[in-house]
Amino acid sequence: MQLHRRTVARLSVVSLLGLSSIASGQACLGRSMLTTRTGRIGGSYAQPAHENTWGADGAVGFGRSAFAGIGYSRTSVDQGSQPDLIVNGITAQAGVGIEAKAASLCPIVEVGYQAASSSQGPISAAAHVDTYAAGAAIGLPTSTEAGVEWIPSVALLYVDQRSTTMIRGSVGSNRLSASSPIGLARATLGVVIHQRFTIGPTFALPFATPQARGYAGVAGSVSFGRVDPRLPPVTKM
């Protein structure tokens, strides 16, 4: 049971890293606008306590406001004298950008799946966490004369984590399930160069959960392509 609790606890924390690893979105998420480029590929790295997470992702824009992205993450969790726990995950994100005079607003939804397995003597545990999130983000683009934009952004998400664990031992197997709703706050400072390259730090803090622990990372991306000029103008508030 101790093995089960440790594995699920680590998976629950790591699943939130997966939600933060996508370089999708518009200026509301601290990224270059997908109204000037049709797609984006990127990568990320985060290092909370005892974990190292690497991510790769891609995103596309639809029309002048909608966007979607998908990302893969791999996390190595330090377990001291035990072998590292390896967590693989995939996360999808979608949203709609609404451009106001001085801000970019986005309602967003995200879905994630993270899985890991571990063993201790004759006992093994295989666990996965399904993560469903919904919320909103706001970004404040600020241009400079050198073709550089600074885009601070903040997002608030309601997250529902649903974990399933299969424990196998010498006396049989047992299947355990649990669900835990939490909140997640994210902040990003994106530096956009010539509407093509984006890099910047990312911060996240879970709340309304006993496992609340903030973490920081960095994400970068390269945009490509151009929007069809025949498309209608960007939605304005």
Care to give the gist of this entry?
This protein is mainly beta and 237 residues long.
The general outline is elongated
Q: Please indicate the percent range of residues in DSSP E strands (runs of 2 or more).
A: over 45%
CATH class: Mainly Beta
Q: From the alpha-carbon coordinates, what is the Rg to the nearest angstrom?
A: 19 Å
Count of helices? Answer: 1
How many structural domains are formed by the residues?
A: 1
With strands numbered from the N-terminus, the spatial order across the biggest sheet is 1-2-3-4-6-7-9-10-11-12
Number of strands: 12
The end-to-end span amounts to 53 Å
- What structural category characterises the helix and strand content? mainly beta
The CATH architecture assignment turns out to be Beta Barrel
What percent of the residues sit in helical stretches (DSSP H or I)? under 10%
Assembly state of the chains shown:
single chain
The H-and-E topology, N to C, reads as: HEEEEEEEEEEEE
Biggest pleated sheet: 10 strands, antiparallel, barrel
Could you report the average pLDDT, rounded to the nearest whole number? 77
CATH topology: Lipocalin
Give the low-pLDDT segments: 230-237
Structure characterization notes:
The protein has a single domain, classed as Beta Barrel (Lipocalin), CATH 2.40.128. It has 1 helix and 12 strands. The protein has a 10-stranded antiparallel barrel with strand order 1-2-3-4-6-7-9-10-11-12.
